[in-house]
Design goal:
Layout (H helix, E strand, L loop, with lengths): L1 H11 L7 E17 L2 E2 L3 E14 L2 E7 L4 H21 L13 E5 L11 H15 L5 E19 L4 E19 L2 E7 L11 H5 L2 H16 L7 E7 L1 H13 L4 H4 L29 E3 L22 E5 L2 E2 L6 H7 L7 E2 L8 E2 L4 E3 L6 H6 L3 E13 L5 E13 L2 E6 L3 E5 H4 L3 E4 L6 E10 L4 E9 L2 E9 L4
Parallel strand pairs: 5-7, 9-16
Antiparallel strand pairs: 1-2, 1-3, 1-6, 3-4, 6-7, 7-8, 9-23, 10-11, 10-15, 11-12, 13-14, 16-17, 17-18, 17-19, 19-23, 20-23, 21-22
Length: 480
């Protein structure tokens, strides 16, 4: 952060004359180690540094990005931003006077127990080799892999109104995968953090039980080879947190992004079935459905002090007791729509301007444990770990596949079923929500590949959810 502060201080001496400006500096480091089938894969190292200048002048907004963070490079980026602001003032759809201004001064840093550099590369590879050996339970395991990656993002935002926000996020992501095959049947299982992303340091390796989980991951892949197909039927459905993450992401998070609702965003299955008139009155789900935007949860992927425009981060209800309350949109979209929103304008890096994005979108816990949910089911399927997803352009009709299913009969878990899937419609699916696990079942997870925008912006998104029970859902299998 010291390096970024020096660059920002130099920029302050040549700050542009305009109505408002921001400088967002981003430094990012990435490191990935992987052992596949006992062979060390080529390591991947990356380091980037760049700046985005935002300028508001004469009723227009302009952006200028550069990887040249010298005084000359930043001056050139500022000139480009001014040129685009002039274009926007003539051709834009709204007056730049509504652009949000920030004077916030705040700091955030991921709490770390074990630094990435506290373990040598050799020791990390030894750990991954040990996990590989534990995954190779049987000759029918035809592919197996263990990995360990680290990402650090340091960001400094300074503004023309005296704002200064420094944030440093650290992520360590371990994971395992085992692929089993017998004849024409192939099954895959992930585990040990592969779909359980959080902020943190090397303590994440112990938290996800990298070595201990390997035999289970491989064993389940093998067992699925001989398991029957998931039945095709209308049944009750229990989704574990590993799948609830994507269910919330696709059919609540994306439909509530305000730029989609305004019609600006049409990429990656863009737009939304939600309309501005729905807020405050539309029944999105049953009374058990409570969803929050919460950037304050410790170690969740997008926890921090502000968004990328300096809007202070606060917890807000999006859906309360099943009723839709507010969208996901920053102050600019809020001003255009005349709706409340959230501190959720985010950019994927120094070379992209912030847009309306999910942050931490959480389904609040209810009462009871997983056994209590299972006991309420006469005929159903429990599903774990997402495998595939599909959703229409309005974020309404969807179909998801999972890696593993378990039959539920008369309130008890039965055997495994393979290739489980389910389908529904967002506008009615959440109204079938019949049970929500309690606080002890809540899992803080997230996704690391949320794509949106043109050009594309891929970002991390946090999600926390307990297991949930849905009534009368269309479930299906993959067929023989």
């Amino acid at each position: 952060m010291e390096r970024l502060s020096e660059i920002a201080d130099r920029f302050l001496t040549q700050a542009p004359a305009c109505d408002y400006w921001t400088l967002r500096l981003v430094e990012e480091d990435f490191d990935h180690l992987e052992v596949r089938q006992g062979v060390v894969e080529p390591s991947r190292l990356a380091s980037v540094l760049g700046a985005m200048v935002t300028l508001v002048k004469g009723g227009g907004i302009g952006y200028g990005a550069t990887s040249d963070i010298s005084p000359a490079g930043l001056r050139a980026a500022t000139r480009r931003a001014a040129d685009w602001a002039e274009v926007h003032s003539r051709l834009g759809l709204f007056d730049a006077d509504i652009f949000p201004r920030s004077s916030t001064r705040a700091d955030y840093r991921t709490p770390i127990q074990e630094a990435w550099v506290s373990m040598s590369v050799s020791d990390k590879l030894d750990l991954l080799q040990a996990a590989n050996r534990a995954l190779r339970l049987d000759e029918r395991i035809v592919d197996w892999s263990a990995w360990l990656s680290r990402r650090r993002v340091a960001q400094l935002l300074v503004t023309g109104d005296g704002g200064r926000v420094s944030q440093v996020w650290d992520f360590v992501h371990p994971g395992l995968v085992a692929v089993a095959n017998a004849g024409s049947q192939t099954q895959r299982r992930h585990g040990a953090g592969a779909d359980w992303a959080q902020q943190g340091g090397l303590e994440r390796v112990a938290a996800v039980r990298l070595l201990e989980e390997a035999p289970r991951v491989a064993s389940e892949a093998l067992t699925l080879l001989d398991s029957p197909e998931c039945p095709q039927d209308i049944r009750d459905l229990i989704l574990l947190p590993s799948q609830m993450v994507l269910q919330v992401h696709e059919s609540i998070g994306h439909p509530l992004e305000l730029d989609r609702i305004l019609g600006d965003e049409r990429n990656y299955a863009g737009t939304s079935f939600v309309t501005p008139g729905m807020f405050g009155r539309y029944r999105y789900g049953s009374e058990l459905l409570n969803v929050t935007f919460d950037p304050t949860v410790p170690l969740e992927l997008v926890s921090g002090v502000t968004d990328d425009e300096g809007t202070p981060a606060r917890r807000e209800y999006l859906i309360r007791d099943g009723i839709l309350e507010r969208p996901l949109g920053g102050p600019l979209s809020q001003a255009r729509a005349g709706l409340p929103g959230t501190a959720s304008t985010r950019a994927s890096g120094w070379d992209r301007p912030p847009i309306d994005r999910m942050g931490n979108i959480n389904l609040e816990p209810g009462e009871g444990n997983l056994a209590d949910l299972i006991a309420q089911v006469e005929r159903g399927v429990l599903m774990d770990t997402n495998r595939s997803w599909s959703i229409d352009d309005s974020r309404n009709k969807f179909q998801f596949g999972c890696e593993l299913g378990r039959l539920i009969e008369d309130g008890e878990l039965r055997g495994l079923v393979r290739n489980p899937g389910y389908r529904g419609i967002s506008a009615t699916f959440w109204r079938s929500l019949h049970g929500v696990g309690g606080l002890e079942t809540l899992e803080v997870r997230g996704v690391r590949n949320c794509g949106k925008g043109e050009p594309n912006q891929s970002v991390y998104v946090g999600h926390a959810a307990p297991p949930c029970l849905f009534r009368d859902v269309s479930v299906f299998g993959g067929g023989e």
